[in-house]
């Protein structure tokens, strides 16, 4: 529109040379808005000069002001600024864009110290640190800056990828990774790391490709694309082996092990995590050791070795505390609380989980908050505080629903259903467990399916005939045996035993209960005492013979 352009031209003509240059350079900015720090980097001036220049442009109605000292263009004016910028010396334009990328990269890396990515440590950043940078030394400052600049950082990474600067594309995305992961921005992480990977491939940058793949894989895992996640991590491992990068190999192996745990392949997970742990240990990579130990503790938990699980998690917690990795501390505390609950140490479990909860809230980590609340609900249920258990489960369900995290929703629904069973709300409990079963089926979570089937079996034993309860528990038993997960096997056998008791089949009940007892005793689960009491009562009532010695 000629008249609009003429009006812009009049306003532009009223500016002095420095203000005109700032206006043109703002046209190079790829993001939706800008503050004085980014403007100073882009224009190569001081912070005060940038502030004065932005205020002059605002006074001439060439930019609009937003909250907290941020400015943006109207779309038509942005195009006008870009047209004028195209007439500048190409070397000067390129230098301005590089200064802006340096600003975003170095500041994001400083802020990301509060949200460290769990992967291998990055090398030095390219370019120069900015002359002026906002304060990001506290967790709150870092979180606020990363949130405010999230769209600009994404745009800067995309600009770097589009202008053949693959190292900036990979490292800006990497600096955002821990924050995006903690805040549940997994879809954004997918887009960023895929774009970085594409840029590194075009440039033939093999270290960049490996690192982008290693960061892409967890985002694929969090969005329930396990095959793609395993493929990405395996390609990263292959590249790191070719490069002779042992820290990269360890990080890739650790993540592959974590993915195999998520897909219920516990023997593969234990082997890969063990290899990763050896490599991290040989490198003195304490953060990596902590992560591998946490995941190894989870494998031991699922396979019923609670003593080994607790030992791994205590060691991981010490490492994470030493390295100041708060997000990883939260994870280790949550898993330790779960193991303490499973071994019947409810006060210790509550203490671990109550320590983890405020840390996760400070980080804004809704994903881990949901997990902690679900584990806390189990402790509250087992200690008879059903209103608190219900409230914790509902909070967990709300958080995981906001994240669209189906796996976490299923666990929260099961825990809610168990509390509903105990308060006699059987229709609500049935709805919770059936919804959990569908979600676990949708995401292919076999262990989750076994747990839910056991929940449904326990509900059926309260409300229906023994045959229906037996059917649920038998399905759970088959899955748990295939997976090699003794806790759910024992729970299923106990449920089958009780269903036989309900139907008057004392001999069959005693056989199943003895099998359950043997597993519970082997894994040191507190349920052993309950089953022993049931068997003792059967013998006392002469309904079942004493076990053979």
Question: What does this entry look like structurally?
Answer:
A two-stranded antiparallel sheet has the order 1-2. The chain has helices at residues 2-13, 17-26, 36-43, 47-59, 75-85, 90-112, 139-148, 150-162, 166-183, 186-202, 206-222, 226-243, 246-262, 266-283, 286-302, 306-323, 326-342, 346-363, 366-382, 386-403, 406-422, 426-443, 446-463, 466-483, 486-502, 506-522, 527-540, and strands at 64-66, 70-72. The radius of gyration is 28 Å and the shape is elongated. With 549 residues, it is mainly alpha-helical. Helices cover 78% and strands 1% of the residues. Helix 2 packs across helix 5 (75-85).
Task: Briefly summarize what is shown.
This protein is mainly alpha-helical and 549 residues long.
Topology overview:
Layout: H1 2-13, H2 17-26, H3 36-43, H4 47-59, E1 64-66, E2 70-72, H5 75-85, H6 90-112, H7 139-148, H8 150-162, H9 166-183, H10 186-202, H11 206-222, H12 226-243, H13 246-262, H14 266-283, H15 286-302, H16 306-323, H17 326-342, H18 346-363, H19 366-382, H20 386-403, H21 406-422, H22 426-443, H23 446-463, H24 466-483, H25 486-502, H26 506-522, H27 527-540
Antiparallel strand pairs: 1-2
Helix pairs in contact: 2-4, 2-5, 3-4, 3-6, 6-7, 6-8, 6-9, 7-8, 8-9, 8-10, 9-10, 9-11, 10-11, 11-12, 11-13, 12-13, 13-14, 13-15, 14-15, 15-16, 15-17, 16-17, 17-18, 17-19, 18-19, 19-20, 19-21, 20-21, 21-22, 21-23, 22-23, 23-24, 23-25, 24-25, 25-26, 26-27
């Amino acid at each position: 529109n000629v008249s609009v352009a003429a009006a812009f031209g009049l306003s532009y003509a009223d500016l002095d040379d420095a203000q005109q240059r700032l206006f043109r350079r703002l046209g190079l900015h790829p993001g939706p808005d800008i503050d004085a720090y980014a403007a100073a980097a882009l224009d190569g001036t001081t912070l005060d000069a940038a502030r004065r220049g932005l205020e002059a442009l605002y006074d001439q109605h060439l930019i609009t002001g937003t909250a907290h000292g941020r400015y943006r263009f109207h779309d038509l004016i942005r195009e006008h600024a870009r047209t004028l910028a195209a007439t500048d010396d190409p070397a000067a334009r390129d230098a301005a864009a590089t200064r802006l990328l340096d600003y975003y990269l170095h500041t994001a890396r400083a802020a990301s110290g509060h949200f460290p990515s769990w992967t291998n440590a990055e090398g030095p950043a390219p370019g120069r640190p900015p002359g002026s940078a906002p304060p990001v030394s506290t967790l709150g400052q870092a979180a606020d800056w990363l949130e405010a600049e999230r769209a600009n950082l994404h745009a800067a990474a995309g600009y770097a990828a589009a202008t053949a600067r693959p190292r900036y594309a990979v490292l800006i995305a990497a600096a955002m990774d821990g924050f995006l992961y903690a805040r549940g921005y997994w879809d954004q992480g997918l887009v960023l790391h895929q774009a970085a990977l594409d840029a590194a491939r075009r440039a033939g940058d093999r270290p960049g490709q490996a690192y982008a793949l290693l960061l892409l894989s967890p985002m694929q895992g969090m969005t329930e694309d396990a095959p793609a996640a395993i493929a990405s991590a395996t390609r990263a491992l292959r590249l790191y082996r070719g490069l002779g990068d042992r820290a990269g190999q360890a990080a890739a192996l650790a993540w592959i092990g974590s993915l195999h745990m998520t897909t219920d392949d516990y023997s593969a997970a234990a082997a890969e995590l063990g290899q990763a742990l050896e490599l991290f240990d040989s490198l003195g990579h304490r953060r990596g050791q902590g992560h591998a130990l946490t995941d190894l503790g989870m494998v031991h938990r699922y396979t019923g070795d609670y003593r080994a699980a607790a030992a791994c998690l205590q060691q991981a917690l010490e490492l994470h505390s030493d390295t100041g990795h708060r997000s990883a501390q939260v994870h280790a505390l949550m898993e330790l609380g779960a193991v303490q609950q499973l071994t019947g140490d409810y006060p210790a479990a509550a203490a671990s989980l109550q320590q983890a909860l405020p840390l996760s809230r400070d980080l804004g980590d809704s994903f881990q908050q949901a997990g902690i609340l679900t584990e806390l609900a189990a402790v509250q249920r087992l200690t008879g505080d059903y209103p608190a258990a219900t409230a914790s489960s509902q909070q967990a369900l709300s958080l995981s629903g906001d994240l669209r995290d189906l796996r976490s929703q299923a666990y929260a629904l099961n825990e809610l259903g168990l509390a509903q069973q105990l308060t006699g709300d059987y229709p609500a409990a049935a709805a919770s467990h059936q919804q959990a079963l569908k979600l676990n089926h949708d995401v292919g979570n076999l262990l989750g399916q076994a747990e839910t089937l056991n929940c449904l079996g326990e509900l059926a034993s309260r409300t229906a005939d023994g045959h229906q309860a037996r059917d649920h528990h038998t399905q759970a038993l088959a899955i748990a045996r295939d997976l090699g997960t003794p806790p759910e096997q024992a729970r299923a056998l106990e449920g089958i035993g009780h269903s036989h008791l309900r139907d008057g089949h004392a001999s069959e009940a005693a056989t199943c209960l003895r099998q359950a007892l043997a597993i519970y005793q082997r894994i040191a689960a507190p349920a052993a005492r309950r089953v022993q009491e049931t068997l003792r009562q059967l013998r006392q009532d002469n309904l079942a013979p004493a076990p053979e010695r």
